[in-house]
Amino acid sequence: MTIREQLELREMEYLSPYATHSRDSLGRKRKEEECDLRPVFQRDRDRILHSKSFRRLKQKTQVFLLPKGDHYRTRMTHTLEVSQNARTIAKALRLNEDLTEAISLGHDLGHTPFGHAGERALNEVCPLGFKHNEQSVRVVEYIEKDGQGLNLTREVVDGILTHQTAGEPMTLEGQVVRLSDKIAYVNHDIDDAIRGGLLSELDLPPKYRKVLGNSTKERLNTITHDVIIHSMDQPKIQMSEEVAEAMRGIRKFMFENVYRNPVAKHEEDKAVEMLKKLYTYYLEHEELIPEEFMRLSMLYGDTKEQIICDYIAGMTDNYAVKKFQEIFIPESWNI
Q: What local confidence, expressed as pLDDT, does residue 198 receive?
């Protein structure tokens, strides 16, 4: 018996009846020989972790565009916090931690530079539309590994696609990640907003602080315990209504006071226009799109508009600025 088979047997003995077992996976688009060491979801986690798209997350905006300070979240640190939250919940509920981690690490691989501002820019300018969860799936299925994709299991791809509100994950592990994404970004965005001088803890509505707590640590502790208590031995991941309502209230407060705050977002319009101009420029100069992206058109028959979205969405913040300067700013004016 291989080590993988021993691990799969251990899953069958230990995991919850509601967990997703590795040996029962729906499989991959392209069949592969099984690894003798790692179950399928662990292999998926490793593939995502070693991908180029994952490494680029370190230079992509979470909320604050190019913040002045080293301690603000990036898209990568957000991803890692989602993974940590999700694994804590999955472990307590005896769900498949490898599957949970794979979905967590892959859920934002398709996110644009400049956070949701970049997503909005591509969605407005591209006739095909643009959603980062769908682009994340495109990254793992088509773009990575020179157009071959990572060939992940169906469960991981489904969790990546459905990590937003739309759609229903096919696994409880996917449900855990979807909720953990919200838990992570609301709490770490409060922390970053306080660090940036936009808020203080006392600015948060008292009725929500009373339920969730008066610090990031207290809020995370309250929410995590609540999810685990109300999801234990249940076929659904859920919160109590009191905590869920407080979470919705805090999220609404953050949209009104941070996500749309002119201090935090005063550079967003510039970022949006920058990406729109890059998109329009590459429509007229497709010969400047890297060959690795143009190959997707030959392999899968993708349109020029889709290929341009792939290229721009894969850029880091710094690389997008660099390309904009190269194209639109006279060299003698660059400082």
A: 84
